[in-house]
């Protein structure tokens, strides 16, 4: 793909006109139009500004503009032979040249039947374990699984913490919460109408006292331990009932191949270890969802002070983001572009 073509796509996804984007990056709109048409090549400074305004990866834009990203240059200078080998390996499958084998003495050309993987070698990846906060990890999950412009229903929106670092307009966000009068178990959407559902209900019961101050109170939100919760169960079982019912509703509103992002945490209830993420996964797998990913979020700060006579279980300082896909099981996940095949 050419730089100008990609730039035009990104601009339209963000809902920006030529003049608006040109003003943000401090260039003339006619000059920006010539960049999109391929008539001129942008400078590194302009590419950097465009990446910042559009919230896009600077290195990828640099490569599309036939430039080596600045953050790669020091590595290439330190180990040019190794870098040449990796680059040659990555482009081998495009057949732009005879296979290049590289050793520490330099380059020599020869034919080879060995097939190398596509792509550019990098360790700048999204990993399954993350030390940080919800608003840092959530945008990374979206980038892996949700196509730009998708209709995303965050059915437990709360104060919108997850979306703090997601640029506005990148997705068609439908924000609802129990405080807004919308229960995640009974959504106001038509069947097969949503691309992605996000669920983050209170994921542990409140045993009393101040043990969970600062966490959403399950009893207060969903009437746990009372006849109003729609279930005869209490405590952890009532929490599971909420997740299970919300999962059934998510499956109803999601399009085929739609994505279901679920936040949860394990807990110890009545001195018994409850692996909530396993219980939820097993239930959802029986209701039309395929498991695609599991992210472990480790908190930076230490948990609050607890009064204990004797510790018998490890104190949990992590939670999970789980990613499910609504599917018949006949297809494999190939990236967010798969959502374009709606049905």
Flag low-confidence runs. 93-111, 207-216, 223-229, 338-343
Task: Describe the global form.
Answer: globular
Assembly state (oligomeric): single chain
Instruction: Label the CATH architecture of the largest domain.
Output: 3-Layer(aba) Sandwich
Task: Give the overall average pLDDT.
Answer: 80
State the helical fraction. Answer: 25-40%
Number of strands: 11
Task: Record the strand order, biggest sheet.
Answer: 3-10-11-7-6-4-5
Compute the gyration radius: what is it?
Answer: 24 Å
Distance between the termini: 28 Å
Order of helices and strands: HHHHHHHEEEHEEEHHEEEHEE
Summarize the structure.
With 343 residues, the chain is an alpha/beta fold. The chain has helices at residues 3-13, 18-25, 29-37, 44-54, 58-64, 70-78, 80-91, 134-145, 218-222, 235-253, 276-285; strands at 100-103, 106-109, 129-131, 151-154, 172-175, 194-199, 254-264, 267-269, 272-274, 289-298, 318-326.
């Amino acid at each position: 793909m050419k730089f100008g073509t990609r730039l035009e796509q990104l601009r339209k996804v963000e809902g920006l006109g030529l003049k608006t984007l040109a003003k943000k990056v401090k260039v003339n709109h006619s000059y920006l139009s010539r960049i999109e048409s391929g008539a001129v090549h942008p400078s590194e400074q302009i590419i950097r500004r465009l990446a910042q305004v559009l919230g896009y990866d600077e290195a990828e834009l640099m490569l599309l503009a036939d430039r080596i990203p600045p953050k790669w240059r020091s590595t290439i200078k330190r180990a040019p032979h190794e870098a040449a080998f990796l680059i040659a390996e990555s482009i081998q499958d495009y057949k732009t040249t005879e296979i290049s084998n590289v050793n520490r003495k330099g380059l020599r050309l020869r034919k080879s039947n060995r097939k190398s993987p596509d792509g550019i070698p990098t360790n700048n990846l999204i990993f399954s374990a993350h030390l940080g906060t919800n608003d840092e990890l959530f945008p990374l999950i979206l980038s892996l699984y949700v196509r730009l412009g998708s209709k995303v229903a965050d059915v437990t929106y709360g104060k919108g913490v997850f979306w703090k670092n997601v640029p506005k307009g990148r997705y068609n966000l439908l924000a609802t919460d129990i405080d807004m009068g919308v229960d995640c178990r009974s959504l106001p959407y038509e069947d097969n109408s949503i691309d992605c559902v996000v669920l983050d209900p209170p994921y542990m019961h409140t045993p009393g006292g101040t043990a969970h101050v600062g966490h959403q109170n399950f009893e207060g939100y969903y009437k746990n331990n009372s006849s109003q919760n729609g279930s005869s169960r209490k405590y952890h079982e009532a929490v599971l009932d909420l997740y299970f019912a919300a999962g059934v509703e998510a499956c109803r509103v999601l399009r085929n191949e739609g994505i279901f992002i679920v936040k949860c945490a394990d807990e110890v209830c009545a001195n018994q270890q409850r692996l909530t993420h396993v219980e939820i996964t097993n239930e959802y797998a029986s209701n039309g969802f395929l498991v695609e990913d599991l992210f472990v979020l480790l908190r930076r700060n230490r948990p609050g002070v607890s009064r204990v006579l004797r510790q018998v279980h490890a104190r949990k300082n992590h939670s999970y983001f789980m990613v499910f896909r609504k599917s018949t099981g006949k297809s494999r996940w190939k990236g967010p572009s798969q959502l374009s095949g709606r049905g």
